[in-house]
């Protein structure tokens, strides 16, 4: 996923989208690196 994570609204949006993924077991958002790491069987 590619997304702007520069402002607090954008960060909230990224977190909201990630938490809605089916099959998600765990996730980690690193705003400094602009990375989202997901764990599970995610179907898109």
UniProtKB/TrEMBL annotation:
Molecular function GO labels: metal ion binding
Alphabetized Gene3D superfamilies for the sequence: 3.30.70.100
Protein's UniProt name: HMA domain-containing protein
Taxonomic superkingdom: Eukaryota
Segments forming domain HMA: 1-44
Coiled-coil ranges (or none): none
Pfam families: HMA
């Amino acid at each position: 996923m590619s997304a702007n994570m520069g402002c607090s609204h954008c960060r909230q949006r990224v977190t909201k989208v990630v938490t809605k993924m089916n099959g998600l077991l765990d996730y980690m958002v690193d705003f400094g690196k602009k990375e989202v790491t997901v764990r599970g069987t995610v179907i898109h």
